[in-house]
Amino acid sequence: xxxxxxxxxxxEWSRAARKAGQSVGLVPTMGALHAGHISLxxxxxxxxxxxAASIFxxxxxxxxxxxxxxxxxxxxEDCALLEAEGVxxxxxxxxxxxxxxxxxxxxxxxxLSERLDGKSRPGHFRGVATVVAKLFIAAEPDxxxxxxxxxxxxxxxxxxxxxxxxxxxxxxxxxxxxxDGLALSSRNRYLSTEERRQAxxxxxxxxxxxxxxxxxxxxxxxxxxVAVAEFSREPQxxxxxxxxxDWATLLPVETVASGTLFAVAAFVGTTRLIDxxxxx
Length: 280
Ligand code: PAJ
Fold this sequence. Notes:
CATH topology of the largest domain: Rossmann fold
Bound molecules: pantoyl adenylate
Order of helices and strands: EHEHEHEHHHEHEHHHEEE
Radius of gyration: 19 Å
Structural class: alpha/beta
């Protein structure tokens, strides 16, 4: 497995692969890899001839009071995991390679970027769209793999790819969970034992909503109330949002239907966790 540090080398590698008739897959990550990330790598391995994973803790997607400085960085362990999965290239640039001195160009997805996580994390999706566009321009992948776990991120990136007419197919992979339902996240490692227990309320609330949908409830208001009631059993957990939205526009719906995104975000201690499901 090759570790590449510069955009120029990554592009050279990708172009050589394409020239040899190979399809190129890209799995963008911020490292601190877990089974959720690995599921993306496996999906990439299945449908692409060669696979690059990027590891870059992107400073522009963190707010001034967020966890950029203490975000877990486990590069050696990450590389061992990726190598075991048969990844061909790890792209691990430093910040100056992605944001050269004086960098002033950003990708801004208006509207969408102010909804869901973008509402409580101003500037977050501008940072995400910018870094992912840069990764796509550098790696020129045929397909790029993302988790449904970050469903609003997926909506923003679909818009970016469509608007910039980037020649890349976005592949969205299912949420990988702990046995008790908690969605895997690099931030789960911030949780104390007690917070880890409290964190189960996110998936429990979603499960309660899914059960109501299965028995015929379609009113978004009623379904949100079901989720909020479940959250109220864990009063230490602070709701950021509980919402039913159109997955493309991230605008609220009144009636849920097939394809509606039902999403939650909540603070467990100081750790912000998210989870969702898409109505079948
Ligand atoms: P990161 O949080 O490292 O996540 C990398 C990818 O893994 C994302 O597409 C995310 O949705 C996916 N992922 C995380 N947890 C998952 C889970 N439990 N099941 C399935 N997939 C999961 O998302 C980012 O990094 C960054 O915003 C990035 C796109 C790399 C841009 O900096």
